[in-house]
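Two component transcriptional regulator, LuxR family
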Amino acid sequence: MSISIAIVEDEKNYNNALKKIINYQDDMKVVAQYFDGNDALQNLPNISPDVVMMDIQLQDMLGIEIIDKLKKQLPATHFIMCTSFEDDEKVFSSLKAGAMGYLVKGESMEKILSSIRDVYNGGAPMSFSIARKVLSHFERKLPEIKGFDELTEREKEILELLSQGLLYKEIADKKFISIDTVKKHVGNIYRKLHVNNKVEAINKLNHFKN
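Predicted structure tokens:
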């Protein structure tokens, strides 16, 4: 089964280049292209793609706004920011809105393709420069620890495995459960810990241990 992908990018050459290289892969397919935010906002809920490659600075709105408005309607869709902006505010606003990955334009197509596969399998791909920002930010700002008492033993086990870098399929195999069951547990973990993505959940776990 191929990974369905939507591209939201107002730079037409880059949008088309992404589509061409993605459609060349055996395991993924572009199901929609949008060149402005409003079009994406109106049509993405009807498509429910597995992954959305989202530009931050669209001509009519910020990609962050689109994620913020659509995340609840598209709980199974993974958003990857793909942008030329690296400033802290946009990075953390994106993650807070629910983006699962953050790539800087200029990354190789191999990195972009591997990031799509990674996020689809439960990863949180980021460009190296972005990952360093995220780590230093979390070191400065310790999150409030909430919700751990509400986690079931199975949810705690799955969160621990996520923190070890295991993907959904690996967790499913290790615990002898289906990938859908893993995803359901992960959704419950996010809700109980009041987080939007894996990075925040693992960070809370690490501070809880300390």
